[in-house]
Amino acid sequence: MRWSGTRGILMLLLFLFVGALLGGILADLLGSVSFSGIMPYLVRQYTLLDLQNIHLNLLILEIDFGIRFAPNLLSVIGMIIAVWVFRRI
């Protein structure tokens, strides 16, 4: 495992992205099932970053975009598992 090179960092970012994505998909699947107890806290999204409706007019090109980062606890758990798997490889 090589931490200093760009390949190691890019692989870590890929693992983190896939872990968060799989955790989010699992949260969406489990969110439709009515469980009681801890499940509502695992599937609830917590907004950390929300930039909405940024408009950029360059006279020949107009761009509208926004960024929203709202992970849920299952996504965070997925990222933790992804880091654990990355360190084991």
TrEMBL record:
<keyword id="KW-0812">Transmembrane</keyword>
<keyword id="KW-0472">Membrane</keyword>
<dbReference type="InterPro" id="IPR025470">
    <property type="entry name" value="DUF4321"/>
</dbReference>
<protein>
    <recommendedName>
        <fullName>DUF4321 domain-containing protein</fullName>
    </recommendedName>
</protein>
<dbReference type="Pfam" id="PF14209">
    <property type="entry name" value="DUF4321"/>
</dbReference>
<keyword id="KW-1133">Transmembrane helix</keyword>
<feature type="transmembrane region" description="Helical">
    <location>
        <begin position="65"/>
        <end position="86"/>
    </location>
</feature>
